[in-house]
Specification:
Blueprint (H helix, E strand, L loop, with lengths): L1 H16 L6 H13 L3 H6 L3 H14 L10 E7 L3 E7 L7 E8 L2 E5 L17
Antiparallel strand pairs: 1-2, 2-3, 3-4
Length: 128
């Protein structure tokens, strides 16, 4: 009986631990790696419909010959209750990249940014 209670508590703990909210940076890393490794199930899960369609439309061109460890490194992150911006570098691209994320149903999702949206960062030495 004692073993059953211990196993039940352990299972409950593991189930709750798996439902952790990801930060904008963690979500961005998943999106980058799923994009370049062509894991479209994960890509779709962590993007808005617009973000998914935008990334899918360039995936074959951009991801060709690139896979493996991303060496994802966050340069800057800023967020409020609904929107986040993450500027990062990877081993896949020479220049830093920028993602805009929206909070949808309590989870961060990468979305497609407009052509003039550059984030809220004050530094001007990055190009995206």
């Amino acid at each position: 009986m004692k073993n059953i209670v211990i196993c039940s508590v352990l299972c409950l703990f593991l189930a709750c631990a798996g439902k952790q909210d990801l930060s904008p940076s963690e979500t961005s890393k998943i999106v980058v790696e799923s994009f370049y490794n062509k894991d479209n199930t994960a890509l779709k899960k962590y993007t808005t419909p617009e973000g998914y369609e935008g990334l899918k439309s360039i995936q074959d061109l951009m991801a060709a010959g690139k896979s493996g460890d991303s060496n994802f490194k966050v340069l800057e992150e800023t967020a409020d209750d609904k929107t986040a911006w993450v500027r990062f570098t990877t081993s896949y691209e020479e220049n830093p990249e920028l993602f805009m994320l929206l909070k949808v149903d309590g989870h961060w999702k990468v979305t497609q940014q407009g052509p003039r949206e550059k984030g809220l960062f004050k530094t001007s030495y990055f190009h995206s």
